[in-house]
Amino acid sequence: MSIANQIKILVVDDTNTSRMLIRDGLEELGIRNILLAKDGEQALQMMMSTPAHLIISDVNMPKLDGLGLLKAIREYGPTKKVPVIMLTGRSERAVLESAIKLGVNNYLTKPFTVATLKKALEAIIGKF
Fold this sequence. Notes:
The chain is an alpha/beta fold and about 130 residues long.
């Protein structure tokens, strides 16, 4: 059984189109266990009740942004080691530096391709 069949990924983005594009990309890679959250607050609630193995999160969101979510995930014992991939726009260098300080595992610059998504995932979970 491949890792793609076993891993549960939480996709967090306030834009429905972005959530669907990421979900479609993950499905193209063979990943079927995908949870979707519309903001960091909803994602944090989901991680408290049914933790995912990996989080792909946008930075700019209402209620709780990507950095706030990352900080909360890192401060909560049961989730502090969950890998996080941050989605950023091209001009968000300072945001990326903050994410690195908070312990982000990888990042993707929007827009991205399925190939770059696969590379970002493989850098964390290995080849699949």
